[in-house]
UniProtKB/TrEMBL annotation:
Protein name: Response regulator receiver protein
Domain of life where this protein originates: Bacteria
Keyword Metal-binding annotated: no
Keywords tagged on the record: Phosphoprotein
Occurrences of domain Response regulatory (ranges): 4-120
Chain positions found as 4-aspartylphosphate: D55
A Pfam family: Response_reg
Length: 300
């Protein structure tokens, strides 16, 4: 059964483009569209779609307020936020409100398809796991009082390492910093949101250096190692994309962890044989997405 979508965006052209991408790519069916947050609430509560594409900025109320309103009324749809805003705090608020992914405007067909394919996979996997849990629950009733076997949870390192390997950056020294940062973030009481970058760097530096002066110098070194590691990952994904645009690693990691426009620029550089060595990376976005994947992996 195809997934159902609703689109809420005050830009008519954006609504039409998203609808065409969804339907032409066979991703699902668009049950309805709305041009404001309040109209969107009414539409979504009426149609109960599987997935909602929600604009961040709208005249009456923003997308985050709309999502919170829907969730308070029992809505269980999956949300994808769409906006040209790149403010880190705003993106963090969006993720905390419960969105699955963040797509930046102007709308890019490849990026939208890649993100929505991933949402489709997660939705199907979720339904499959629910069925397994239901079956296991029934089987437990047949165990005649035997305690259920508890599966051991994966460590942060076990979850993060394969992701970094898939992006071709595990050999970079910054990968150690990324794993350390994720371990520290996972150990905090409030694991729903990621602390500011400076705080993360300082926490990681304190685990490497006990002398305050040395730890202060290490903060800058950590940032530099992260930039090199992310640049290596972006470059590797761009190389994969040139060879095979449909490669699952490229389709998933490139638009999710990096600004896709930067990936395309790097692909163009490589194709034209004029690599400058300069790569623009968004460390905050990368770590936020990785943290979300970590939390999802630890809760399985």
């Amino acid at each position: 059964m195809p997934l159902s979508f609703c689109i809420v965006d005050d830009d008519g052209a954006a609504r039409r483009m998203l609808q065409h991408i969804i339907e032409d790519s066979g991703l699902g069916e668009v049950a309805g569209t709305a041009e404001s947050g309040q109209d969107g609430v009414r539409l979504i509560l009426s149609e109960n779609p599987d997935i909602v594409l929600m604009d961040l900025l709208m005249p009456d109320q923003d997308g985050i307020e709309t999502i919170i309103s829907l969730q308070s009324q029992g809505c269980r749809s999956k949300f994808v936020m769409i906006s040209q805003i790149e403010n880190g705090d705003m993106v963090s608020r969006a993720y905390r409100s419960g969105i699955e992914f963040f797509i930046r405007k102007p709308i890019n067909k490849i990026e939208v398809e890649s993100v929505l394919h991933k949402i489709n996979e997660r939705y199907a996997l979720g339904r499959y796991l629910d069925e397994i849990k239901l079956s296991l629950g029934k089987l437990e009733g047949l165990q005649f009082g035997l305690p259920p076997v508890q599966a051991s949870k994966r460590t942060v390192k076990e979850i993060i390492q394969p992701i970094l390997m898939n992006m071709g950056m595990i050999s970079e020294s910054g990968s150690r910093d990324i794993i350390t940062i994720m371990e520290l973030a996972a150990a905090k009481e409030n694991t729903d949101s990621l602390p500011p970058l400076k705080e993360l760097y300082e926490m990681a530096a304190a685990t490497y250096k006990t002398v305050p002066a040395e730890a202060a110098k290490e903060v800058k070194a950590i940032e530099q190692r992260l930039r090199r590691a992310l640049a290596a990952g972006l470059t590797n994904l761009a190389s994969i994309g040139i060879t095979d645009y449909g490669n699952p690693k490229f389709e998933y990691y490139a638009p999710l962890y990096f600004d896709f426009e930067e990936v395309r620029l790097k692909m163009k550089e490589i194709e034209q044989g004029r690599e400058s060595g300069k790569v623009k990376v968004n460390i905050k976005k990368f770590l936020q997405v990785l943290h979300l994947e970590l939390m999802e992996g630890m809760n399985r």
